[in-house]
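Q: Structure for this?
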Amino acid sequence: MFCAFSIYPLFMGIGISFTDFDILRPLARRSFVGFGNYVRALTQIDDGFYASLLFTSIYSLSVCILSYLLGLGLALALNKDFRFRAVFRGLFLLPWVIPPTVYATNWRWILNDRFGIVNQFLLNIGLTKEPILFLAESSAARLTVILGGTWRGYPFMMLVILAGLQSIPDEIYEAARIDGANRFQSFVRITFPLLLNVSIMSTILQFIWTFNNFENIYLLTSGGPINSTTVLSILIYNTAFFRGRFGYAAAIAVVDLILLSAVSVLYLRLQRQREG
Amino acid sequence: MKGGDGKESMNKEFCETRKRHKLEGGMEMRKGMFPSWFVPLLAVLSLVLLPAVDVGAAGQKEGATTAAPVEITFWNFNYGDAAGYPKAFQKFLDGFSKANPDIKVNAQMQAWSNWLQTLLTAVSSKAAPDTSISPSTSCIMFANMGEVLFLDSIADEWKSSNSPVLSDLMPDVLTAYNYKGNIAGFPWLVGPRGIMYRTDIFEQLGITQMPKTWDDFLNISRTIRDKTDLVPFAIPCQNQDGSHVALHFMFSNDVGVLTKDSTVNFDTKNFREFLTFLDTLYKEGLIPKGTISYTFDDALKLYYSGKAAMVFTQPFAQIATAPEMEKVSGVLRTFVGPSGTSPKGLKWDDAIMAYKQSKYPEQAKRFLKYYMENNLVLFTEGNNFFYPLRKSYFEDPHFKTKGFRLTIENVIPYAVGASWPVPYYEEVGAIDGERILGKYALEGIIEGKSQDEIIANLNKNIKDMLKR
């Protein structure tokens, strides 16, 4: 099953990347082009590869950092005993479980400049004089998709960190309290170091998923305005299905794979160093 | 030997021992009987063979009495509302099944978003349905890929039987989607684009003359902006709708994606006038600032909720969601740009087609023939807001209602296909799907790009898409 659904498509895709396979042309015309697609992707600046790579990197790093910080804060809060804690734990998981289309449709309504509640609220309290064009202006759209990705990503961080927190024995905190440590010191000297392994693992995983994510941005902005939020996965999709250039799209996807593999190797080395 | 008790206990022990040996022996047998790869292989074989076994069994059961109907698949798209159109289509299918009991049609509704990718992926992976709707000029694209079942035999049948359908079809139906002399698809409906407006607002502001030129339209918009708090003109930009807005106004100024010689050149006076027109609409506040993020539904919602005076749309689309707006809505007559020779606007002709991959080509063609002969119910029920290509259908009271009547008078006579001024080219769907015009022209103007930059981007990207 693994071979059928993972290994075979992977090698098929790598094979296609060395051809000029065009989905709109009959199969008989497919021919081997060597590294031609890779050379094109890496040398033709205006083809959009580097611009997409840059934004994808910024987007992934930002979502990782922000979702980690938000997840950490919520995990620390939910680790305490309070009434209806289980209900809050369930509610905070909602952004993770709702389908991407529901997320995108709702946020488009919420952020609309004319009838969205966010702009209505900001205008009513006098914080802004004009509606903010969350999805209609390049810089605002980039920030909006980053915040959207953070909103979708924090529940995973929260869950993983919460599990890590619950594995820390209370006795360590008691001992620290006896020694006169305050909350901040306990966090910096006990909590954070003991969460480091879990934090590194979850951040790297979140980075890889966010780097490859397609639907969160495509459903919200389609990669616009004017390609300002086009990440690599959207570039690959447009190149394959609208330009018909499956070979070229496969080459970009392989470069994407190599970059993420490098990140994974880095993670494994860090793991081994910490274990060593 | 011991006494009776001892014998009984021996027997009991013997039976227990036999039972134990049976179990252990059985387990030992089971342990040695199947190698470790056997169970996984059995699981895989079951998955692969079970459907065939099931079909075979069903076939045997049915074969015992009558021949099973041939099942063909039809990929459909929704031309009405979510509740009504599928019901209307089922009624149509019931009629087909009654007339053709030897064919069973498995109709599957597909989503409009990413329609091109859906069809392209299915065809390329050799999993195409037998028949489908062909949005835009996709049947030509698939004909170029060698994947289309040509429909000439249906037209020949109509000719040889002097079918009344022939004289009832609009001109060009049999030639519109010809590929190298063969019929790749039959266009069966038209989706025109136009501008709906608030008749009560126009009356209130004393606007009595319909705009005939871009300048007339801009002046009307300015009057609405200055004298009301309504958005003068709501337009969609997201998905493919931004490109549709661009094409509609480009056509009115005699500009298409390709020139009459099928070359790419956006650096023309006519196109620059179009960019200036868009710039004026945006900078003077005649369209909302957030227009780039508006979908078709967002723009329509703005109009139907009474916040916009005019909207670019398929006229009276989804009017059932806002029936109170029907009384106060009208349709502007298509107007002409400063360098246009005549009023022109955009329309989409969708077709029906069959695929070469079909295992039942004759049955697929019979379904399409019936479809072309009997599709009135798809227009009159299910809130279909498109227009047929059968002349007699317009006699139905459905098309005498206000919205249809106004669109037939003011929009349809001036509507041209997306590939204008050339008859067709296979990349129409792909250029529309990637939103090239909406992205670089509409969004470019709104983002403050220069005309030179917009023209350079369009030339480069369209040429790139046309390279074959």
